[in-house]
Design brief:
Layout (H helix, E strand, L loop, with lengths): L14 H8 L3 E2 L2 E2 H10 L3 E6 L4 E6 L5 H5 L1
Antiparallel strand pairs: 1-2, 3-4
């Protein structure tokens, strides 16, 4: 995502890092544990980080499991 730490407003430095960290904290009807368990059950290896110019999200999984992982 082309929005890294360099885009953080002066008064909110670190916001991009916080937002990237919140990604796996839960959404909708799933909390952090439910998201983690669902991805783990598919064998998804995931990562990400906030860099200077970009925020990255990555995952390694079997192609057949892609649609399930995106649910």
């Amino acid at each position: 995502v082309p929005a890294g730490a360099i885009t953080d407003p002066e008064e909110s430095q670190g916001a991009t890092t916080v937002l990237e960290g919140l990604t796996y904290r839960g959404a909708g009807h799933r909390d952090a544990r439910a998201i983690s368990d669902a991805l783990d059950s598919l064998g998804v290896q995931r990562g990400g980080g906030a860099e200077l110019e970009y925020t990255t999200f990555s995952a390694a999984l079997l192609a057949d499991d892609l649609h399930k992982a995106l649910e």
